[in-house]
Specification:
68 residues, alpha+beta, two-stranded parallel ribbon, elongated
Amino acid sequence: MSTAKYKRIVLKLSGESLAGEQGFGIDPVIVEDIAKQIKKIHNNGIEVAIVVGGGNIWRGLSGSAKGM
C-alpha cells in the first residue's frame, strides 16, 4: 500500500452533484455512492472534511416561492 500524500483533505461537493439526473434536490442513490467512496478514503487513514454547497437548493426554494 502506498503512503497518502495528505492525512486530511477537504472535499467540496456542489449541491448540484447530489441531484443526479434529476437536476434538483438530493438523490439518495448518488449520496450513497459518494458516501461509499468517502468511506474508502477514510479507511485508508485519511481524515475527510466535507463541505456541501446548497446553491441549487436555495435557487429551487426561491423559484418555488415565485410559483415556478
